[in-house]
Amino acid sequence: MNDKNPSDIAPILKTVDSSAPIAPAKAGGKPRLLIVEDDEEIRTQMRWALTAEYSIATAGDRANAVEQFRLNKPPVVLLDLGLPPHPGTPEEGLATITELLSIDRTTKIIVVSGQGEKGPAMTAIGLGAYDFVTKPAEMDELRFLLKRCYHVAHLEKEYRQMQETLGGGAFEGLLGSGARMQAVFDSIRKVATSDAPVLVLGESGTGKEVTARAIHQRSARRDGPFVAINCSAIPETLIESELFGHEKGAFTGAHAQRKGRIEQADGGTLFLDEIGEVPLPIQVKLLRFLQERVIERVGGRASISIDTRVLAATNADLKKGMAGGTFREDLFYRLAVVQIILPPLRDRNDDTLLLAQAFLKRYGDENGKAGLVFGADAVRAIRAHPWPGNVRELQNRVRRAVIMSEGKRIAPGDLELEVASGPTPGSTLKEARDKLEAEMIRASLARHAGRITAVAAELGVSRPTLYELVDRHGIQRPE
Ligand SMILES: Nc1ncnc2c1ncn2[C@@H]1O[C@H](COP(=O)(O)OP(=O)(O)OP(=O)(O)O)[C@@H](O)[C@H]1O
Ligand SMILES: [Mg+2]
In what order do the strands lie in the sheet with 269-273? Predict the structure, then answer.
């Protein structure tokens, strides 16, 4: 660089020294700084004074500032408030703040304001400027301020990067960088802004509930309640009052009036989990609610209007339910205005490892075991495993591994996975067949939460045969 020595310049700035760089160095050299100042002399002074530490761009008005800002992407901007065409007032400077922050809201703007002009400086801070100094700028003070500013900008950037790596493309708590999950994120984005009912489909543990929460979080109802009800967990006799509430004395044991889940979700989102398990008479009532948006509490006569968005989920095959007469078609079409299908983990390719790493980091930190890594054979085992219990299974296995692991390296055994999966060279046909049989049964059991009848139907064997196979392979049924 052929910059002139700072001391060649008339001292408008009080102290000029060329001490060693104080701001954290950028990969490509000095950190970038944009100086916006209409007075050419001051602008030049500042440039010389700071050129040893920063890579400086300058501008004399708003248009130029925006152009330079876009070009250089400086993390910090020094901005004079009085800019042409009205250098006597702060308007242009304030407008510049708004414009720069709208381009990049993480930018740190330090305002340089005239003596006794606290008012505009405070307005600038209100608009999002980071700090201010008064003219003439005291060089040591300015250096200190800049140093602190870059430090904060640097920390914030590191934090954002950490969040991103941790997330690997996190989306409202959902991880996934593969095409299948990106498509799911797209759907969530699209449906979130509408009030349409959404049916979330997927095997057990694929993330149906987190998806429902993500839709709520991204919707205009995010400040309202998110009320989830697991329809399979409630006895048939109680489900109506659980959903619709009841009046005092509606039935034995109804000692007081109680609001149901639907009413609790007023102004927010209602999540009907395991919708396939809702008994037919309740399906009729739900349908009526979806059509008319009013409910009556059990034992009550008043119609209560409810404003809630309805999301539902199931891992059951509702088409089969409709064919078999256990699920109402009209309710299905009301609920399934939009469907989001979550792919099983075994179809998500590299996401499995991404999720495994993220869980390892999370549980490692939680358990005071930071820095754990998967050994190469653990990575192979994770890749090979079919993950019948999907993300939940992965999460549980990694959590367990973190607790059980002794060294820094997680072994397949810590995950309770076999070292090499899949047909190993040299295995007999019978061994391969047994292995596949066991894997398929495990997967189906996980999909159907251990329900033998459903598993037997899916695999095309009788219940007694299935029991025998489960025994023979020493398979544990999920509880
Ligand atoms: N993409 C993902 N990223 C991070 N965590 C996930 C993801 N998907 C699911 N999980 C986690 O896995 C667990 C299971 O998710 P969730 O409860 O949403 O699944 P589900 O489909 O509702 O399962 P079930 O059918 O058993 O009710 C949760 O702890 C959730 O946080
Ligand atoms: Mg669930």
Answer: 226-230, 269-273, 309-314, 198-201, 338-341
Q: Which domain holds residue 377?
A: 344-421
The alpha carbon of 313 and the centre of ligand 2 are apart by a number of angstroms equal to 8
Same domain, 222 and 322: yes
Q: How far is the CA of 56 from the centre of ligand 2 (A)?
A: 54
Residue 248 has a pLDDT of 92
Instruction: Judge whether 278 lies within some domain.
Output: yes
pLDDT tens for 271-293 read: 999 999 999 999 999 999 999 99
Q: Give, rounded to a whole angstrom, the gap between the first and last alpha carbons of the chain.
A: 72
Q: Which residue in the block uniquely carries the two structure tokens 């140093």?
A: 147
**Which ligand minimizes its atom distance to the CA of 390?**
1
208 lines ligand 1 (CB under 6 A): yes
Do 156 and 257 sit in the same domain of this protein? no
CB 476 within 8 A of CB 446: no
Amino acid at 456: A
Of ligand 1's listed atoms, the one at least distance from the Cα of 212 is 18
239-273 pLDDT per residue, tens = 999 999 999 988 888 889 999 999 999 999 999 99
Atom 2 of ligand 1 has which residue's CA nearest to it? 174
pLDDT attached to residue 310: 97
- Both tokens assigned to 446: 């996980």
Question: What does pTM read for this prediction?
Answer: 0.60
Distance from chain centroid for Cα 436: 36
Looking at ligand 1, which residue's alpha carbon is closest to its atom 8? 207
Count: domains in the chain: 4
Amino acid at 230: N
Query: Separation of 229 CA from ligand 2 center, angstroms?
Result: 10
